[in-house]
Every structure is written in C-alpha cells, then in structure tokens.
Amino acid sequence: VYAAPRTTQQLTLQEKAALLTGDTFWSTVAVERLGIPALGLTDGPHGVRKQRASPDTIGLGDSIPATCFPPASGLASSFNPALVRRVGQALGDEARTQGIAVLLGPGVNIKRSPLCGRNFEYFSEDPLLSGELGAAWVGGIQSRGVGASVKHFAANNQETNRMTVSAEVDERTLREIYLPAFERVVTSEQPYTVMCSYNRLNGVAASENHWLLTTLLRDEWGFDGLVMSDWGAVIDRVAALKAGLDLEMPGPLPESSAEIVAAVQAGVLDESVVDTAVARMLHLVQRTAPAPDPKASPELPAEMVAAHHLLARAAAAESIVLLRNEGPILPLDAGTPVAVIGEFARTPRFQGAGSSQVSPTMVDTALCAISGLTRVEFAPGYSLEPKGDSAHLIAEAVELARTSATVVLFVGLPPIDESEGYDRSHLDLPAAQLSLIEQIAAVNPRTVVVLTNGGVVSLEPWHDSVPAIVEAWLLGQAGGSAVADMLFGVVAPSGRLAESIPYRLQDTPSYVNFPGENDVVRYGEGVFVGYRYYETVDVAVRYPFGHGLGYTTFAYSDLAVSRRGDTASVTITNTGNTAGAEVAQLYVGAPGATVRVACRELRGFEKVALEPGASVRVEFQLERRAYSHWDVATSGWMVEGGEYRVEIGRSAHDIQLSTTLSLPKPPVPTLTLDSRVSDFLAHPVTGPLLVRAAGEATNGEASLLTMVASMPIRRLMRFPGVGSSFARIGLLIALANNPVVRWVAAHLPHR
Ligand code: GLC
Q1: pLDDT above 50 for 751
Q2: Ligand 1 site-directed mutation target among 104, 108, 116, most atoms within 8 Å of CB
Q3: CB 462: neighbour CB atoms within 10 A?
Q4: Rounded distance from Cα 44 to ligand 1 centre (Å)
C-alpha cells in the first residue's frame, strides 16, 4: 500500500473519518489546514456529466454540455482498443477542464443476459474484449491525470433488485467469466479507483466482501488504488472499511464518519485500518494533482468541442455493424433520392438513460446528414411518445415508401425500454414499429433498416423481409452523421458484434435463471455465456458474436502457431475492390479438457485496414491463460496439456482457418492417501498397477474402479474387505512419489 505520508499522522481521527466519506454528492472532503484538496468525481463512461445545479443532488439531465461519445455497447463493436484509448484521452481532457479528478467508468460487467437494462453501458458478453477495451479506456483517461473508476465490482449483471440481489456464481465461472475484465484493467492499467457494486456476491455484499476487495483485488492482483462504493452501496460502514472499501459515496454523511470514530474509540476498529484507507485517499490526491477545482463549471473551449465531435463521429462510424446486405444494396449511390422513415432519424436516441446520461455539445441527426448527401423525403412512421397514435403515421410512411426508389427505415428501442435501474422483459421492437417494417417491406423491396438500441433486439420475424440491416446501437452525439457516412460509402462499415443476437429470448443461456427469485440469482449456465453457449451446444443464433460485414471481402491464409503456442500468425488479404477494415479473431478450444469447457473462446483479436489487393501478416501473442481453465481443486489456473484447437474466425461461428497444437501435460501429481482413485488411475506408474490389482480383486471387472474413481483412497479402504487389497498402498504411493519415477513418468509419451 502507498506509504502513508506525514500528513496522515497530522490528521485528527475526526478528519481521517471525514476524508473517507463524500463531502457532497460529487466530491470528497478537503482539509485546508493540511493542503488536502477536495476531489470532484462524476459520471460517466461515455461523457462527462458534471451537473450544473447544486452538487448535493443526483441531478440527472441538467449537466454542463460535454461530448457524448458512443456508449460502451457501440464502442465495443469497433473492436479497436486504440480508438477507445483516444476516446479515453478526450474524456480526460474534458473531465479536467470541468473540474473532475475521477470519471466514474468504465463499466466492464459481462452481458450475461440481453435483458439487462444497462447493457448499453457495458462492452460485451466476452471477458477478453471487455477487458482489453476497458483497459484502453482507463489508459486513455489516466494519461490525462484523471482517475478512472472501473465498475461495478463485481457480478453486477442485472438491474433487477441490484441493491440486494445475491449473485450466486461458482468459483470457476467467476474466475473465467465475471472477473477477468476487471483483472485485465487492474493488472495492466492500475486504475486509480475501483467502484464496488451494489449486489451481494455469493451472499456477501460487495461493499463488505473482504475476499473481493482485499484478498483478490489487492493481495492477488496488486491493486494499489482506492475502492469507492457505488452510490448508496454501503450497508455497514465499519464492516466495509475492514473489508477494504475506502470511500463511501455519496456525501454528505456525517453519521458515517461518526460511526468510524465511535468504532475506533470503542476499540472495535483498529485506527491502522483507518490510516490505510486515508493513505489511499491521499495517494489519489497525489495521483490527480494538481486537483481540478470541483466547484469550477466552465463550458468546454470551442476548439475542444469541435475536435471531440469529430472524434465522436469517427468512433461512431467504427461502431456500426452491418449485419445484412443482400444485393448488395449498400452503399447507396449519392445520386439516388431516398425516403427516410422513422422518428429516430429526426429525433435520434444516442445514449442510454440513468447516471451515464450526458448533455451533448451538439447532436447530428441522420435526417440532416442524409439530406446533405442526397435528396430526401421524410415520414416519422411512429411517435416516440408512449401513447403516440401510430395508425396514421404508418399509413403516411407506407405511402411514401410505395412511391420511393429506396427506403432507409430507422427503428429501435424507445428510451423507456431500457435503462439503468430496471431490466427488460423481452427483446422485441415496439409493436407499431414491427408493423411498420412489415408494411414498408411489402411495398418496397429496397428497404434498409437501421437499428437504434443499447441492448440486443430480436430481428424476427421481419429479418428476411428486408435486404439490409444496420445495427447502429446508441452512437453518441455524432451518430447521425456516422450512419449517413456509412450508408453512402463515405466510410466503410467495420464494426463487429460484441454480443450475440439470438433468434429467441428462450434460446439465451441464462433464460431460466434471469433475473432470479427471492433476491437470489443463480448463474446456472456457468461459463457458458453468450457464444460460449451457442457454439458449444450448437444453438443457432440470428447473428453470432464477432459478425459484421464490410463493403469489401477478405481472405485468410497460412495460419501458423508456434510449438509452445505462445504466438500465432495469419495472413489477411483484401480480395475486394474497395478499402476496408477486418477484425481477425483468434479462438482456442480444448477438446480433451477434463472439465466442461466451451468449444471455443476468444483469445485474441486484431483490426486491420487494407487497401484492395493488399495483404498483411497478423501476429497474436498468446499467454498461458489462453490455454488455461480455473482449477477449483488447486484454486489456480491450470494448463491441462494435450491437444488444443487454434482457430481464426470472422466470428465465433464463421471459422476460416484451424490448426491443432499439442502442449505438455502438467507434472505428474504426488499421491497421498487422500488422493482420489482417479488420481492413482491417471498416474502412469500406479494406474496400470491399480487396474491389475483391481482386476485380480474383482474378477477382472476393472469397471468397479471407474465407479469409485472419485473416492479418496483413504475412504475406499474403509470399506470392509477392501483395505486388505490395498495393503501395499503405502508402497504404491512411495513408488509413485519417488523422484526418479516421477521424472520417468513426466517423460513418458503423452498419456
Ligand atoms: C449509480 C451507478 C453508478 C454511478 C453512480 C453515480 O447508481 O450504479 O454507475 O457511477 O451511481 O451516479
């Protein structure tokens, strides 16, 4: 831990306790006499929400204008860490300008179910992609001296009862799916802060979960920053402090500081625990020095606004996923007049609702942007008002579609359908929009559907009725221009799905366990989240993780993997006649694993831009983790060895090249009386001896051993009459553990 400076010793206990609780909703306590400044904290992951009104209220919606970049579900589709880092840098510049020392993001929770109301604010169903992009975001923002707050730690994968629900997650699933993104961010970028989540993890509130906040986060991962609570996540302040939660937010909460003082004075809380938390608070002050003034609320400089709007437009363009393009109908010819239909084209929905909601510096609409590229006629087609009358709007839109050469139809989820604070109950577009799509497709075969949604929506039953479908997510303030640029080929689409699109909600792996009951949600699907489930159990989806089309084509060749599997390389060629970007995805599978593993898991990805005819050799660096699973018996990562499948895919389903790799098995385990029969059977020396001994004892029915394979030998020997057959078990164990025998066993041909 950061060595507590002299300052800590100069603080009174009351001052120390005050430092560990927010001073206002959005700032920490200052101790002027010692030169400790207040620090401004605010949301959020895709834009600075520095509220104008009094800092003592949550103030949703009345913040100072700032650039609204694409929320995470859009940005993740770029599969471009360098781009995300640039967005992080821009956010850092805006945060500092507006008096913010810590920006509360990124959100890296895994998209366990497409129903989660806050999926717009999270990156992916895949831990590697979430971790890489979350790390890029943190690296970007902290390069400007502004702290990040990676959140929500951990297993906050739903909004239903988020403050009380217990996420029941087995150890391996936690380690392989729900923790790796946090681990990647912490170990590669050292975020200045981590935000603990509201929920309980296996029955223990995250805010007072010592294993989570100290044993794992600090002792195992080496986190050296400050842990703050989500707003209102603390239940018992003293228990939270002991668990490793340093700062309770929001403030002001004098009773919280008083609890700390009273606990120290009563001898139930050691003052050294308080000093450690204070030292982390002072470390944060040091890292963000010179502290921007949280009371400052300047407008952003004009040149920053302009530059960041262009960056938001570029980021939005890379986040668009072209799902379907029959014909191909896209890109449209700029000379072709189009009918633009859908209120979202005129009134864009470009971000999600809740704490992350930004007041944008400006907003581009697709209608204006398209009007700048070709002749346009417009019809709203539906109303965004909850009770808007759609019948006449549909009729008007259908009539326009009937008489137009091409239709670009903007549909999507109204703001009320998804938000922080509650989950969705279905994946469908509003009924009026479904009717509109069908009726327009019926009168005009040249209809391009553009989707506006934070969480995945179902494309049924209308998918086959239209030749082109663009997944435009929520793209931030410049999304309208980005969509127009993509539709008319100013920019080629290069986004890829960071979340699978199922045919039906019932097909999703968490369907029977989401959102749980009686304040408990069981992660019964285990590690089989998203494509890990669909690909392993062969459930068809409408579009798989990693899918996305461009305006050109690519070929893959010459996949090579080093003998030890630490590097893999492949050549990608642009075989089309226009420039484009491709996302090569590297997957690894372990068909011989002794535990249930997904048939493939993303272990690397690389986005490359290529001119027509050009080729590039892409190299992936693979760590041991690429071939590991979490072994609960030893509470550690294990490479089992044997055969692995290394694949290059355009998606989790569209595998282009595949090869196999053989890795050495781990050293032969030492045996004890508490080893299982299966351990003795797997041992190259004791295995054959045991089978022969069993054969003699059971008239050759060695299958008895299979039946008792999971039993510890010591327990098996307590069965009447069995012990004598194992009289020489001690000799067998000594033989098995003999160093010479172990060396020979380790060098026998693969067992
Ligand atoms: C909210 C969110 C969290 C946000 C915080 C401050 O409840 O869960 O993401 O940063 O409170 O608004």
Answers
A1: no
A2: 104
A3: 21
A4: 8
Query: Which residue's CA is the nearest one to ligand 1's atom 5?
Result: 231
Nearest Cα residue to 341 out of 430, 404, 262? 404
Mean pLDDT, the chain, whole residue set: 94
Residue 152 CA, closest ligand 1 atom number: 9
CB within 6 Å of ligand 1 — which residues? Answer: 43, 104, 151, 230-231, 355
- Is the pLDDT confidence value at 144 over 80? yes
Q: Is 635 left (phi over 0), alpha (psi -120 to 50) or beta?
A: left
Sorting pLDDT into bands at 50, 70 and 90, what band is 728? Answer: confident
Query: What's the 156 CA to ligand 1 centre distance in angstroms?
Result: 12
Query: Which atom from ligand 1 is nearest to the alpha carbon of 151?
Result: 9
| Burial track 193-223 (b if 16+ CB lie within 10 A, e otherwise) | bbbbbbbbbbeebbbbbeebbbebbbeebeb
Tell me which amino acid residue 664 is: P
C-alpha 141 – ligand 1 centre gap (Å): 18
| Ligand 1 nearest-atom number relative to CA 49 | 12
Give counts: helices (H), strands (E), the chain. Answer: 24, 26
270 is catalytic: no
Q: How far is the CA of 425 from the centre of ligand 1 (A)?
A: 22
**Which atom of ligand 1 is found nearest the CA of 107?**
9
The alpha carbon of 548 is separated from its chain's Cα centroid by a whole number of angstroms, namely: 19
5 CB-contact burial (10 Å; exposed 0-12 / middle 13-18 / buried 19+): middle
Rounded CA-CA distance 269/373 in Å is 67
Task: Give, as one character, the DSSP assignment of residue 321.
Answer: E
Three-class secondary structure assignment of 134-147: HHHHHHHHHCCCCE
* Start-to-end C-alpha separation, the chain: 46
Indicate the top mutation candidate among 230, 248, 419 to test ligand 1's pocket, ranked by most ligand atoms within 8 A of CB: 230
Question: Could you tell me if residue 700 is left (phi over 0), alpha (psi between -120 and 50 degrees) or otherwise beta?
Answer: left
> Atom 6, ligand 1: which residue's CA is nearest?
231
HSE (side-chain half, CA atoms, 13 Å) at 664: 10
165 backbone dihedrals φ, ψ, rounded to 5°: -65, 145
228 DSSP 8-state letter: E
pLDDT for the residue 725: 66
* Nearest residue to 76 (alpha-carbon basis) of 601, 645, 634, 474: 474
Q: Model confidence over 283-319: pLDDT tens digits?
A: 999 999 999 988 887 899 999 999 999 999 999 999 9
> Active site residue: 43, 93, 230, 417, which one?
230
Selection from 182, 431, 450 nearest residue 329 by Cα: 450
Q: Which of 57, 355, 356 to mutate to test the pocket of ligand 1 (most atoms within 8 A of CB)?
A: 355
Q: Are 21 and 257 in contact (CB under 8 A)?
A: yes
Handedness of CA 82, 84, 90, 92 (dihedral sign): negative
pLDDT at residue 750, rounded to an integer: 44
Residue 695 confidence (pLDDT) above 80: no
Q: How far apart are CA 360 and CA 71, in angstroms?
A: 13
Q: Which residue puts its alpha carbon closest to atom 11 of ligand 1?
A: 231
Amino acid at 451: L
Average pLDDT for 554-581? 98
